[in-house]
Automatic annotation (TrEMBL):
EC number: 6.1.1.6
Reactions catalysed, as given in the entry: tRNA(Lys) + L-lysine + ATP = L-lysyl-tRNA(Lys) + AMP + diphosphate
Annotated signal sequence range: none
Pfam families reported for this sequence: tRNA-synt_1f
Keyword terms, alphabetized: Aminoacyl-tRNA synthetase, ATP-binding, Cytoplasm, Ligase, Nucleotide-binding, Protein biosynthesis
Protein name: Lysine--tRNA ligase
Record-linked PANTHER family: LYSINE--TRNA LIGASE
Localization in the cell: Cytoplasm
Motif 'KMSKS' region, chain ranges: 300-304
Motif position, 'HIGH' region: 53-61
UniProt GO cellular component terms: cytoplasm
Gene: lysS
InterPro entries documented for this protein: aa-tRNA-synth_I_codon-bd_sub2 (IPR020751), aa-tRNA-synth_I_CS (IPR001412), aa_tRNA-synth_I_cd-bd_sf (IPR008925), Lys-tRNA-ligase (IPR002904), Rossmann-like_a/b/a_fold (IPR014729)
Domain of life: Bacteria
Length: 542
């Protein structure tokens, strides 16, 4: 696939200084951080995303990694000589607190409650542990979308000694850390809270028990085991793990994380972990709080409730690029993430893509497709919108792509599946979306007296048009017919056309639809309606 010309590296570095797109705004904050520190001590700027492997990766996982990648790329354009790295960190040393409802071998899993996820046997029988299974799913998920990252396992980091120095800092600053955490807990929880969760030397479980004794000089902590006996272990070498808010701070300190995003629901946790990082003698990473997704009722999406849309759902009906656009747009604004946002996202993506070639370099770096494609923006011409395709499938009463291409090639000559593979793929998406969401809700009705007058006038106007009339010309006649029928609001006229001719309450520009479907087939529909014969399932005229 061809790509379009983009700003040269030198121009891009200059443009990035003042670009207003949010990834550039974030990148400039990271660059200031690096400058304030006199450069990255570890030799590169570290971006991190976190993952809890007790479940499978989901659409939020995609959003966080995609957005973080956009910021990292913006920094690369802003400071091309500054090395960067993105890590995906899996909290796979967490104890299994409950058996997920969507896995096999439930009884076997129940026998391993509270054990680290990387110790719990894999219920699917394909990997060494449940944690390894889900880590593999995560990596396959990220690889599927071409993300560039390094994978970090909490188990490996704890056991290899990578976390040892920071764990000893937590122990040495135990009182200060506790003073930050305890005010955020309930009264009962305060009595038993300890930032360290020991791994039982006898059962292998991650214990949530109060601390009995600590020795900062020796680097050890003492707890009471499940059988009542005391045991002492070092905080290093994977003998303990930290409670998650302390763990987050400890991880930032140990790895030197420079940038990490988090959802708005974790704002207070970010503040707490940042304070602990400062206690450990380090600077917390730059952060970005993104808003959460809402369902079709405006309620927060929850994996456990299943009231949203999965990434598999989105990719059944639309492209990865349209999903990336959805993630790019207004990340600090709560947005509905449900099936009816998909057609708009698809068409907006291709609209931005169409504008790109004619934009100045300064405009191109603000265009979402520049960030979606990492600067290598493809040259794709989409002569038909997704919304028009949906209505074409509806009006033509066909899922035969060959017939659909017959309409399209007449509307846009020399357009074929070979010359426009993206449009060919879009037809598959349109057919799937129509079958699942449009067809079940279609409700045709007959026109009322005012609407009938408008349709009669529109039919006269369409018959008077030349055979090669384009969508804009047709649209002008549609407007004129609505004005002649004296609608108080032309929106009511268009709504009537959608309901009477297409069996739905809204759609794309009617002129574009008629040009695509054809004037004669449209006239046949109008004539049928004017003869009192509904096009499908009807409801009374409004």
């Amino acid at each position: 696939m061809a790509t379009r010309s983009v700003p040269t590296p030198a121009d891009l570095t200059s443009l990035a200084q003042d670009a207003k797109a949010w990834p550039f705004v974030e990148a400039r904050r990271v660059l200031k951080r690096v400058a304030d520190a006199g450069g990255p001590e570890k030799g590169f700027v570290l971006f991190e995303t976190g993952y809890g492997p007790s479940g499978l990766p989901h659409i939020g996982t995609f959003g966080e990694v995609a957005r973080t990648t956009m910021v990292m790329r913006a920094l690369q354009w802003l400071a091309p000589d500054l090395p960067t790295k993105l890590i995906c960190f899996s909290d796979d040393m967490d104890g299994l607190r409950k058996v997920p409802g969507n896995v096999p071998n439930q009884d076997m899993m129940a026998a391993h409650l509270d054990e680290p996820l990387t110790v719990v046997p894999d219920p699917f029988g394909t990997h060494d542990s449940f944690g390894a299974h889900n880590n593999a799913r995560l990596r396959a998920f990220l690889d599927r979308f071409g993300f560039e990252y390094e994978f970090y396992s909490a188990t490996d980091c704890y056991k290899s000694g990578r976390m040892d120095a920071s764990l000893q800092k937590v122990l040495a600053n135990y009182d200060a850390v506790i003073d930050v955490v305890l005010p955020t807990l309930g009264e009962e929880r305060r009595k038993t809270y300890c930032p360290f969760l020991p791994i039982s030397p006898t059962t292998g479980k991650v214990l949530q028990v109060p601390l009995v004794e600590r020795d900062a000089d020796a680097g050890t902590v003492t707890f009471r085991n499940e059988d009542g006996s005391l045991f002492t272990v070092p905080v290093t070498g994977g003998h303990v793990k930290c409670q998650w808010k302390v763990d987050w701070a400890m991880r930032w300190d140990a790895l030197g994380v420079d940038y990490e995003m988090a959802g708005k629901d974790l704002i207070e946790s970010v503040k707490l972990s940042s304070r602990i990082t400062q206690i450990l003698g380090n600077r917390p990473p730059e952060g970005f709080s993104y808003e959460l997704f809402l369902d079709d009722r405006g309620e927060k999406i929850s994996k456990s409730r299943g009231n949203g849309i999965s990434i598999e759902d989105w990719l059944r009906y639309a492209t990865q690029e349209s999903l990336a656009l959805y993630m790019f747009q207004a990340p600090r604004k709560a947005k509905k993430l449900y099936f009816d946002v998909i057609p708009k996202a698809v068409d907006e993506y291709y609209t931005h893509l169409a504008k790109f070639a004619d934009q100045t370099p300064a405009q191109q770096v603000e265009n979402p497709v520049f960030h979606i494609h990492g600067g290598a923006v493809p040259a794709v011409h989409m002569p038909v919108s997704f919304a028009l395709l949906l209505n074409l499938v509806s009006a033509a009463h066909t899922e035969d792509k060959a017939r659909l291409w017959g309409y399209v090639s007449r509307y846009a000559p020399d357009t074929t599946p070979d010359s426009h593979p993206a449009l060919d793929a879009l037809m598959d998406y349109a057919i799937a979306y129509f079958d699942d969401f449009v067809a079940p809700t279609k409700r045709y009705r007959l026109p009322d007296a005012t609407e009938r007058a408008g349709l009669e006038d529109l039919a006269r106007r369409l018959r008077a048009l030349p055979a090669d009339a384009d969508g804009d010309t047709i649209q002008n006649e549609v407007f004129a017919a609505g004005k002649t029928a004296e609608f108080d609001n032309l929106r009511d006229w268009f709504k009537a056309l959608y309901e009477v001719l297409l069996g739905q309450s809204q759609g794309p520009r009617m002129g574009g639809f008629i040009a695509l479907y054809g004037v004669d087939p449209t006239l046949a529909m109008i004539d049928q309606v004017l003869a009192g014969q509904p096009l499908g399932q009807t409801e009374p005229a409004s």
